[in-house]
Design brief:
Radius of gyration of chain B: 24 Å
Number of helices of chain B: 9
CATH topology of the largest domain in chain B: Rossmann fold
Number of strands of chain B: 22
Distance between the termini of chain B: 44 Å
Strand content of chain A: under 5%
Helix content of chain A: over 70%
Number of helices of chain A: 12
CATH class of the largest domain in chain B: Alpha Beta
InterPro entries (chain A): MetI-like, MetI-like_sf, Sugar_ABC_transporter
Family (chain A): Belongs to the binding-protein-dependent transport system permease family.
Strand order of the largest sheet of chain B: 6-7-8-3-9-10
Largest sheet of chain A: 2 strands, antiparallel
Membrane topology (chain A): Multi-pass membrane protein
Shape of chain A: globular
Strand order of the largest sheet of chain A: 1-2
CATH topology of chain A: MetI-like fold
Shape of chain B: globular
CATH architecture of the largest domain in chain B: 3-Layer(aba) Sandwich
Radius of gyration of chain A: 24 Å
Order of helices and strands of chain A: HEEHHHHHHHHHHH
Number of domains of chain B: 2
Strand content of chain B: 35-45%
Largest interface: A-B, 19 and 29 residues
Structural class of chain B: alpha+beta
Structural class of chain A: mainly alpha
Oligomer: heterodimer
Helix content of chain B: 10-25%
Organism (chain A): Pelagimonas varians
GO biological process, one term (chain A): transmembrane transport
CATH superfamily of the largest domain in chain B: P-loop containing nucleotide triphosphate hydrolases
Distance between the termini of chain A: 38 Å
Chain lengths: ~290, ~350
């Protein structure tokens, strides 16, 4: 069969091209633009080359924020992934209660970020918050606005409360797709509960779990609203994560150049980690196939 | 190794079955003799797998008891029953090597490592997978995976029974034959009680000492392949076993005579008064074409030459009738009648076979 050459079809991608250009490429380019220029005010800019990038790389402030960020992401992943799997394993498989559980699980996911922040901000207040008041009444010294550990624990517990559902729902979907015959064979083979998990359930949900880890990593690495509402980055700088620091720099101090350079590096880190993650994931898949 | 007894066993997937129709498995009393190889034959959805899962304990029956060597195991969990079962679709542990897959049931029961090693090697040889023992099970072809499943089923020597649930569905025909032979020799060697579920009659007839035919949740007949062929207890058995199946024709039977569509034929044996829907069942092997005035008038529709013999597809008063003609027979237009060999004629009342009166 002869195919007629018709390049007009390329026009069909124009809408997507426009959309991507306006939603991603052009905004990103303005950031790139700022990152290589400096200004003395009056809206006059001049070329600064890679000066801002160099400054940012040497800035202790950025490294500290990055350190906090990595610690935060590592902690919430270490809690949310096992907890999510555990919840998924214990959810009913079918029937009325399965639906109830699914609705309950998705509730936290439907709440807007700043509302989550506000909820926990009030919940943890020593004067009027249920949690803060109760802890204070029990004689526990808890004040997230003054104490480093209290602030971190609050932010972490809040994230776990908000996002464990996502991991649980993904793991649940993975578990639901395992045919009954696997469990039956395991019974016949006299496999223990742990072995059923280790050799049937875990391998079968590995795919969705990887996606869950990736999503949670990216999201937690970019976290801004909730800690900003609860602690405002404090006490001191103890919960100032990358995004919070960036906003302080860009909007608080109006240091557009460094903030732009910071943004680009931030973006590249996320891109890099996601890429490495994805590659490792697909390679693992392939290697096990052979 | 055990004798398995089913007592008043029935199962419904509904929590509160109302009528008999709600039961996937209708009330059943049956003994599976220790060391015999059975084939459980029937169309899809007739309750074969349900029965198997009840025996292995994956399913708890709605009523009745299961006894292993006289001991009630109705409430015993699968592990306690010590049964091996192979499923229709391959179940392998993806992240394990083939070797670990085969060793898994033995390791879970705490067998001795040197014994495991030996036994796994033996099983691998049996299923022809010695070369792939160290490969991960993931990424193997479906029939390789199914061979692993079979191997895992056979690896334990001390099981009470080996249950197979259409295990060769995904295996290619050549390997099918080979594996079936392996299963048979395994049976001879160890004398396990084996129950082999299938909807393929060739598979059932070649594998088993006794074939159990199920239809609509009921065991309709149990017997040797020969019994099933010569005296089907139920028209379903006649129809399901044999290729082509038995001819079933409506008739009025009176003593040793039968009237089919106005033509009277002699049955050669006497029957008492019959009630319900009366039918004659005659296998194509006992049916032959003839000319002249004897027999039932038929119209030949088609002749199929299958090599060893010819299958003549004919029509008698709107009912399809099949005749097996020996290879080399000339099918001429004046062959417009069929006659039955009285030895091969069975009489059915409401689908169940009626025994002739002893003279």
């Amino acid at each position: 069969m002869n195919k007629t050459v018709n390049q007009k079809a390329w026009f069909l991608i124009l809408p997507v091209l426009f959309l991507v250009a306006f939603s991603a490429v052009i905004p990103l380019m303005t950031v790139v633009n700022y990152s290589v220029q400096d200004t003395f005010g009056n809206n006059k800019f001049f070329w600064a080359g890679l000066e801002w990038f160099k400054e940012m790389l040497e800035s202790e402030r950025m490294w500290n924020a990055l350190g906090r960020q990595i610690t935060f992401s590592a902690i919430i992943l270490a809690i949310e992934i096992p907890l999510g799997i555990f919840v998924a394993l214990n959810m009913p498989k079918k029937g009325f209660w399965a639906s109830v559980c699914l609705v309950l699980m998705s509730l936290p996911l439907l709440i807007p970020w700043n509302v989550v922040g506000t909820i926990w901000q009030i919940f943890g207040r020593v004067d009027i918050g249920l949690l803060g008041y109760t802890l204070a009444a029990l004689g526990i010294d808890y004040n997230y606005t003054q104490d480093f550990y209290a602030a971190w624990i609050t932010v972490i517990v809040m994230d776990v409360w908000h996002w464990t559902s996502l991991v649980a729902l993904l793991a649940y979907a993975g578990l639901q797709s395992i045919p009954d015959a696997y469990y039956q064979a395991a019974k016949i083979d006299q496999a223990s509960r742990w072995k059923v998990f280790r050799f049937i359930e875990l391998p079968k949900i590995m795919g969705v779990l990887m996606i869950a880890i990736l999503l949670r990593f990216m999201d937690s690495f970019m976290i801004y609203t909730e800690p900003f509402v609860v602690t405002g980055g404090g006490p001191g700088n103890s919960t100032t994560f990358l995004s919070i620091d960036l906003v302080k720099m860009a909007l608080g101090q109006f240091d557009l150049g460094p903030a732009a350079a910071f943004s680009i590096m931030y973006y590249l880190v996320i891109l890099l980690v996601s890429y490495v993650f994805y590659t490792v994931m697909t390679n693992l898949d392939k290697r096990e196939g052979n | 190794m055990a004798k398995i007894t089913l007592e008043n066993l029935a199962h419904s997937y509904l929590p509160k079955p109302k009528s008999e129709d709600d039961f996937a498995l209708k009330e059943l009393n049956h003994d599976w003799v220790d060391g015999e190889a059975y084939a459980l034959l029937g169309a899809s959805g007739c309750g074969k797998s349900t029965l198997l899962n009840i025996i292995s304990g994956l399913l708890h029956p709605s009523q009745g008891r299961i006894l292993f060597n006289g001991r009630d195991v109705t409430n015993a969990p699968t592990t306690e029953r010590n049964i091996a079962q192979v499923f229709q679709f391959p179940v392998v542990y993806d992240t394990m090597t083939v070797r670990d897959n085969l060793a898994f049931p033995l390791r879970n029961r705490g067998a001795d490592p040197t014994y495991i090693k030996e036994r796994v090697q033996q099983i691998a040889a049996m299923i022809g997978m010695e070369d792939t023992l160290n490969r991960k099970a993931r990424g193997l072809t479906a029939d390789a995976k199914q061979k692993i499943s079979l191997g895992r089923g056979m690896v334990r020597e001390d099981v009470n029974a080996l249950l197979f649930d259409e295990p060769l569905t995904v295996i290619d025909p050549h390997m099918k034959w080979e594996l079936r032979t392996q299963l048979k020799s395994l049976h001879h060697e160890f004398g396990h009680t084996m129950i082999y579920v299938t909807h393929d009659q060739t598979e059932a007839l070649t594998f088993a000492d006794k074939v159990v035919v199920m239809y609509d949740g009921r065991v309709v007949q149990m017997g040797t392949p020969q019994e099933l062929f010569e005296q089907p207890e139920h028209t379903f058995v006649g129809y399901f076993i044999g290729s082509p199946g038995m001819n079933v024709l409506e008739a009025q039977v009176d003593g040793d005579k039968a009237v089919l569509g106005g033509t009277q034929i002699s049955l050669g044996k006497g029957f008492g008064p019959l009630t319900g829907k009366v039918e004659l069942g005659v296998r194509p092997e006992f049916t032959s074409l003839s000319s002249g005035d004897v027999g039932l008038p038929v119209r030949i529709k088609r002749v199929e030459d299958v090599g060893r013999h010819k299958i003549v597809r004919a029509d008698f008063n709107g009912t399809d009738v099949n005749v097996l003609a020996p290879e080399g027979t000339e099918i001429s237009p004046d062959l417009n009648r069929i006659v039955f060999d009285p030895a091969g004629v069975n009489v059915y009342s409401d689908s169940w076979r009626v025994a002739p009166k002893v003279a």
